[in-house]
Amino acid sequence: MLANLGSLFADKFRKIIPDSFIFALILTFITGILGMIIIDDISLLAIIKAWYKGFWDLLQFSMQMVLILVTGYAIAISGPAVKAIDILASKIKKPVMVYIIVVFMGGIFVLISWGFIVLTAVLARELAVRVKKVDYRLLTACVYVSFLPWHGGLSGSIPLTMNTPNNFLIESGIVTSTIPTSLTLASNMNIICGMALLITLPVLMILLIPGDDKILSFDDLREGDLQEKEMNIAEEAEALKLPGKNISDILNNSLVIQFLISLAGLWYIIWHFSERGFDLNLNIMNFIFIIIGLLCHKTPARYAVAMKRSCSNVSGIILQFPFYAGIMGIMIYTGLGKVISDWIVGFASVTTFPFISLMIGGIMNIFIPSGGGEWAVVGPTVMESAQTLGASLPPDELAKFLARSSMAAAYGDAWTNMIQPFWTLTFLPVVAKGIKMQARDIMGYTFIALIWSGIIFAVCVSFLPV
C-alpha cells in the first residue's frame, strides 16, 4: 500500500515541482508579495532595495558552504574513499540491501559533514550499476532522505554558530554566552533523535519500493552510452606531466611539500581541540576537510585535479544562493521575518515553544534553505522568546531550554528540505550524470519521508531530555 502511495506522490510531484532555480525565483515573488501585504506602509521599491541588500549578505557563508561541499567531494573521490566504497559495494548483492545501505550509511556520512552527501551519491551510483532491479529514482530519493540527520551532526550550522564566540546573537545582546555543543550536538535528545532517523528511515524507504513492473533501473534511465570507467585522479595528474624530467612537475607531484603542509595543519587541529575542547565551527570543519583531502590525495597535482572535479558540482549553489540571500534580505530588512516569527511565537509557552521553534525552522527553510542564513532571520526571535519564556527557570535549566529551542529550529531546517529541492544540487550532478533525472522525480518519495521525520522531530523536541 505504501509503495503505491509513494508512486502516486512521485507522479504528482513530477508535474508540479519546477526546477530548483525556478523554485527560488517563485519564492522570491511570494516573499515580496507577503511583504507588501503584511508590512504596513511599505513600498515596492523598499522591498526591492531590501532584496538587493540581502543579495550580498551571505557571501562569506556561501563560500563556507561551497568549501564544505567541494572539500567533502574531494575526499569522496580520493583513492582511499573510492577503495572503501568499492569494498562496501562489492558486499551488496540484493536490491533491498541497496536502499538500506544508502540511507543508513548516508545518514552516518552527513552526521560527520553535510558535504559528505556526495559520498552517499557516489555509493548509490556504484551500487545501482552493480545490482540489478533497483529503482534508480527511489534510490536517488534515498540519497536525499539520508540528508535528514545532518543538522544534528558535526557540521550543523545552527549549533556550531551558537558555540562560536562573539556570534551575532551575542554581539546583539540577545544571549550572553555561547551554548556548548554538550547541550546541543552531544545532548541525549540529539543522540536519540539521530538514532531514530538512522533506524527507521531505511525501513520507510523499503516500504516504498515499487512493484517489479514499475521499476526504472539505472540502465533504463541512462541517456546513450556512458563511459562507466573514467580516468581516475592519479591518472589525470600523471597525464598533465610534461615529457622528461623538469622542475615544475617535480614540485607539482611532490609528496614532501604536501606532507609538511598537512603536518602543520594536523598540528593546529590537535592544538585547537586540546585548548578549546569539542569546539566545532564552520571554519575549523572546512580546515579539517582540506587537510584530510591533502593527505588522501598525497600530491598537489592530484589534489588540484580533485578540487577541479569537485567545483564542477557547485554551479547551482553559486547561482541560487544569492537569490535565497535576497529572500533573506526581504525577511530581515523589511521586518517580515520577525513579524511572521513573532506571530507564531505568540501561541507559545515553555512546554510548546520547542515544537513551535521546529515549525518556525521548517517554514523558514522553504524560503531560506540555508541553516545559517535562516538562523540569521529567525535566530533573534527564537532566542529572545526562549529567554522571555524561560526567565523563571534556574540558570542551568534555562541553558538547556535555549539549547532545545535552537536545536528544534535546526531540525526544522533539515526537515523541510524534503520538499525544498535546493540541496539536490549537491548530489544530482553525481547521480544524474548521463541519466534522465531531475529533482522533481524524487520529491514524491521524499514528501513521505517528510511526514515520518516530522513525527520523530516533534516527539524529540517536545518530550526528550536534553
Describe it:
The protein is globular. The model has no long low-confidence stretch (mean pLDDT 87). It has one domain. By secondary structure, the protein is mainly alpha-helical. Helix 2 runs parallel beside helix 18, helix 6 (95-112) runs antiparallel to helix 11 and helix 19 (336-345) crosses helix 21 (371-389). The chain has helices at residues 2-16, 20-38, 44-55, 59-76, 79-90, 95-112, 117-130, 136-145, 157-162, 168-171, 188-207, 218-221, 233-239, 247-252, 255-276, 282-297, 300-311, 315-333, 336-345, 353-367, 371-389, 395-415, 428-431, 443-463.
Indicate the percent of residues in helices: 55-70%
Estimate what percentage of residues fall within beta strands: under 5%
Biggest sheet character = none
Return residue spans where pLDDT drops below 50 for at least 5 consecutive residues.
none
Q: Could you spell the SSE succession in H and E letters?
A: HHHHHHHHHHHHHHHHHHHHHHHH
Q: What do the pLDDT scores average to?
A: 87
Report the span from N to C terminus.
37 Å
- Total domains: 1
Q: Shape from CA axes?
A: globular
Radius of gyration: 23 Å
Helix/strand/pairing category: mainly alpha
Q: Give me the count of strands.
A: 0
Number of helices: 24
